[in-house]
Write the structure tokens for this entry.
Amino acid sequence: MNKIDDNLHSFEKWLQLKVDEFFEIGYDSVTVDDLAYYLTEYLWKRQVPKKQIECIDQIMQIKPNEYWDFILLETQVTNMKTLDQIDLCELF
């Protein structure tokens, strides 16, 4: 388990509060693991805040649009085909 995983475990309560907030406004498919993934792969990818209160503040400020923008972008990038996979005959 790396440092980020240790940090996320200590913020599980805050992540659950944010999941509950998403649920209240109609986003019932978002889980604690989903938000943890968002934090590690986007928000804290380059640097995890040094102070615990800064981490909590960032977690509590996550907006649904920011989260879904990240998921949409990741989906688009992940599903991109390489030139070898594209059938060029389909273009003509």
Notes: Residues 3-91 form one domain. The helical segments are 3-10, 12-24, 32-43, 52-60, 64-78. The chain has five helices and no strands. The chain has one domain: 3-91.
